[in-house]
Amino acid sequence: MFSLRNRYALGVMALVLLAAGVLWFRMQTGNAVAALAPPPDQAVAVDVVQVNSRSITDWREYSGRLEAVDQVRIRPLVSGTITQVHFEDGSLVQEGDVLFTIDPRPYQAAVDRAQADLAAAKARMAYTGADLARARRLLDKNAIAKRDFEQKRNASRVAAAEKQAAETALATAELDLEHTQIVAPVSGRVSRAEVTEGNIVSAGTGAQPLTTLVSIDKMYASFEVDEQSFLSFVNPARIGGAEQIAVNMGLGNERGFPRRGKVASIDNRLDASSGTIRLRAVFDNADGMLLPGLYARIQLVGGAPRPAVLIKESAIGTDQSKRFVVVVDGQNRTSYREVQLGAVQNGLRVVEAGLTPGERIVVNGLQRIRPGDVVTPHMLLADGEEHLADAGDAGDADEGALEHNKKSAS
To answer: Where is the Multidrug resistance protein MdtA-like barrel-sandwich hybrid domain (predicted)?
Structure first.
């Protein structure tokens, strides 16, 4: 009986202790959660800027390739043996510099033979001319038959024609001799010599090129422009009689678009399959950095300057296919605003629609806020430098608050 009563008492005590433990654990857990949870009315500190309007000039960016203004495949105009190569591979040459020499001896012999033939033709013409003059005097005295006179006159004419043919043959021989010296038709940079000394080359359009020469003082950049850009930028200037359309260019390793040029030509039709039209701009190559075939980034500038709103990329949020910003109203309460974005101008994004100058937007801390939240805004200048005041009171900003803004902006 005593044992049964003791067991009952021990069971009751165990239940009491267990209930007390559960109650204590719940109290401790609730205190911890309450300690971790922020006060419901606590405002989140965010960096904001006031949206301003700036004057911009619209432009579009394209990809293109550089092309030489003059590109020549050097081919021989006469056949023969290459006796000398006068340049180093990849060197600069001037117009008229000798590049290759073909053995001139056969062509010099042809010139000598043509000169001899010309001398003989001149002698025959002189003889037949004098004979014709004598025959004419005799004809006046009826001392020569009419047929004999006609024969002498015909012989004089044949001799004159033979002299002219000999002169033409000599000019051709001299031209062939001149072509044994293969010269640069333009100034520029040569490629490697495809044929070395001792090789026999043949003349003609199907002949193997001896080398390639490209001009380097100016360079073309060819690129494709979409239909909308053509209608907005290129066509108005073309129809309006503008002397040039401004184009900027940057190489793959250059920052921005440091090179200035102009559109040199516009294709005569739009490619219906791609919806683009081909343009070619020309650029000076004073520093010699431009080479045919290099990749180029092209900036096509068009239109008159216009006011536009520009914001930082960090102020733009993404919601599926939409872009939005967080606007802070006069009560420091946030709201989402869908915006329509344009091109990038000097690291800032153009806002075509959705914002007006004077509104405040959040630039840092988008992930910490939701629509309708009350925030503590710290004003920054639109160019990224800190304003000396926050949204509350400009006169109460101290060094600590300024340092906080700098850290937040960075």
So the answer is: 71-211
